[in-house]
Amino acid sequence: MEKAPDAARAVPAPAVVMSAVRYRWPRAAADCLAIDELVLAAGERVFVRGPSGSGKTTLLSLVGGVIQPQAGTVTVAGQALDRLSAGARDRFRADHVGFVFQMFNLLPYLSARDNILLACRFSAARRARLRARNTSPAAELARLAERLDLGGDVLARAAAELSVGQQQRVAAARALIGRPGLIIADEPTSALDADRQQAFIDLLRGECAAAGAALLFVSHDLRLARHFDRVLDLARINRVAALTEPRP
Ligand SMILES: Nc1ncnc2c1ncn2[C@@H]1O[C@H](COP(=O)(O)OP(=O)(O)OP(=O)(O)O)[C@@H](O)[C@H]1O
């Protein structure tokens, strides 16, 4: 349920709290992640680094409630995800979390416009947040399209027909529309050249700041880390990594 705006302003819950979390993939011989505590403040922008295979994507999947830990709790915007049924978790995610994945996960046969608006169609909370700001999904789509350089006929074209850069910007608009409190981005800039990377990060940061959204961002490219409030070295907080990898 949406909090009353006054209550939400008075005591902003942390965007994410992970507590004593342990996760092992099905059929894996060992745990992938063991994290005692991880807190992401409301509105905080965190860059997650770590070697390939260290569990960065797994961490994002836990935070997004896509997978469930075998032990411990993941709390997003004050809601413990393990207290929700699978269906309620899906609805909570649609309401409160925007994802920008490496492979974008757009529906290829739908237009860019419909891909973006789908995020609002599935979420009464996203629509309500827009209404509370005297705007609508269509008006917010137009604003984001302008900000994201999705002009001309791009919005009308099927996602499968768009360039990689256009698809990425459509995915960002879909994540941001309706102002979810948490944006999760997994290598969203890997297909872009340096100039476009910079522009994309600026935009993501600006939109998250305007919406008060926290940003959890994974990349191999450490040069991007300076744009964030904090760098989280997964190898340092993951006790599995500490136990199995030699420290320098
Ligand atoms: N769906 C899955 N089923 C089983 N094991 C998985 C699955 N996804 C990831 N793993 C395993 O979990 C570990 C962490 O993978 P993960 O993708 O989270 O790492 P990563 O840090 O994001 O890697 P990269 O930087 O290469 O994307 C790896 O050993 C991987 O093989």
From TrEMBL:
<dbReference type="InterPro" id="IPR027417">
    <property type="entry name" value="P-loop_NTPase"/>
</dbReference>
<dbReference type="GO" id="GO:0005524">
    <property type="term" value="F:ATP binding"/>
</dbReference>
<dbReference type="GO" id="GO:0005886">
    <property type="term" value="C:plasma membrane"/>
</dbReference>
<protein>
    <recommendedName>
        <fullName>ABC transporter domain-containing protein</fullName>
    </recommendedName>
</protein>
<keyword id="KW-0547">Nucleotide-binding</keyword>
<keyword id="KW-0472">Membrane</keyword>
<dbReference type="GO" id="GO:0022857">
    <property type="term" value="F:transmembrane transporter activity"/>
</dbReference>
<keyword id="KW-0067">ATP-binding</keyword>
<dbReference type="InterPro" id="IPR003593">
    <property type="entry name" value="AAA+_ATPase"/>
</dbReference>
<keyword id="KW-1003">Cell membrane</keyword>
<dbReference type="InterPro" id="IPR003439">
    <property type="entry name" value="ABC_transporter-like_ATP-bd"/>
</dbReference>
<feature type="domain" description="ABC transporter">
    <location>
        <begin position="16"/>
        <end position="244"/>
    </location>
</feature>
<dbReference type="GO" id="GO:0016887">
    <property type="term" value="F:ATP hydrolysis activity"/>
</dbReference>
<dbReference type="Pfam" id="PF00005">
    <property type="entry name" value="ABC_tran"/>
</dbReference>
<dbReference type="InterPro" id="IPR015854">
    <property type="entry name" value="ABC_transpr_LolD-like"/>
</dbReference>
